[in-house]
Amino acid sequence: MESIMVYALLAAIPFLTALILMVGFKFSSGKSLIISLIVTIVLALLVWRMDAHTVLAYFLYGALKSLDLLLIISGAILLLNTLKQTGIMQVISDGFQKITPDPRIQAIIIAYMFGAFIEGAAGYGTPAALAAPLLVGLGFPPVAACAVALISNSTPVPFAAVGTPMLTNMTNLSSAVTESLGISLDQFTADVTHKTVLYLGLAGFIVPILLVITLVMFYSTGRRVKSILEMIPFCLMAACAFVVPYYFLGTYLGPEFASIISACIGLVVTVLAARAKILVPAHVWYFYDIEHDEVIMPKEIFGSVSRRKLFKAWLPYLIIAVALLLTRIPAFGLRALLNSMAIHVKNILGVEGLNYDFALIYNPGLTPFIMVSIGTMLANRKNLTREDIDHVFGATGKQVLTIAMALVSGIAMVQIMLGSGLNHSGLEGMITQISTTIVASIGKAFPFIVPPLGVFGAFVSGSCTVSGVMFGPLEFQTAQILGFPAASMIALQMAGGAIGNMICIHNVVAVSSTTEATGNEGKIISMNILPCIAYVVLVLAVYCIFG
Predict the structure, then answer these.
(1) pTM for the whole thing?
(2) Domain carrying residue 508
(3) I need a surface site. Which of 51, 59, 152, 462 has the fewest CB within 10 A?
(4) What is the tally of structural domains in the chain?
(5) Could you tell me if residue 289 is left (phi over 0), alpha (psi between -120 and 50 degrees) or otherwise beta?
């Protein structure tokens, strides 16, 4: 057992290195992840005794996989820079200021509700990359915008991209379900979906409150308790507007529309409530700039923002929303068509089964973000000079290059760790070594480690989907051995994978790049750790009550 523990600790060194460098020593994500990648390669070659060409193959695979996320980020940044240059972002900002000048409520409307809609439609890091820049446009400090966008991107995650994480993990478990449980995959999917919306939904009432607590605790010096308590009624109303339909849609319609329809309902209810000042505190809270010892006041808006002007300003986002729905819902037929145009790379460097598929046209970075960005430039061409357009593309290129190394290094590191089971040492792969050691140490307390495993999987892989693929089969098998309900354990895994998005390195790097907060990734993670832990604890409390 001691030797197993030693190897588990060795396997964890790359993650510990990245965390310590970013959070403890304030290194940038790029430097931290490059060092962690080097540590991973050394461990893979010397301890796990992988072949050098296998390590190189998984490095290349990770580099290729990073293209998907880099394209999404490029599209989101290009859209943001286009909206800034054309003045559209200022109109949107003025419109939100007219709904409410209070950043606490703005965070709930944009990060929590609008972000949930984008998550339900597209997923894969898109929501935070869109919501955070909107918040910055309203006057949020970039780090604050990143933190609340990531905290919000949790409850809707298992049903992102019309249910992709849930459906992918159910497919991954299909043979085990039919052989071990003797029920159909559809029935098991319904059971897991019901448990997931129960755990994340009931515990998720705290998410809007967590947003407010994060903003107030980090960005004010006085009146903190009052600034939090006075927002609780509005927070609970907003949570109710999202969570109630989320629960019933997930339970009775399935995973495809649990997040996207709930977000639409919640967004309408919350905006109307804010406009009518229902449960809105009389006191307006503002950010406090501790460094300059002054309150950050929003700019004053003179006159009104016409509905026509607001509609035109929001038109790019409306087109994006419609395009995402048309290309993500299978019934329209575009999803299969766009995916059929994917580029396929088989057996990279001769490693059997190491295949990469790049659905360029289906990637939301291209369809619709880049397309809408170019369309917006064309629609506003009379107001844009050649220099303006060059500035938009130049600024976008610089921002993307800044984070490319961090993303490539981080994703390549994880892929090498996932592939380290192909070795001459006889050891389990690094990720498996960590997870099986944890499970073996826990025993009958196994359910209490499942959500943290889900968080860990999302933290290292950048995806709730991948977290479930990594740990779902292990948890399913362990549940069978220990006599726990398999549906409940997989639901806890999905919940943990969703919550892990708050602190996932890849998502933190991606969202910080869209708000010019690059270099503050460690601060963002440290701000979001306590909300992450609080949500996990509440999920486990719901499990203890309802099973």
Answers:
(1) 0.80
(2) 2-546
(3) 51
(4) 1
(5) beta
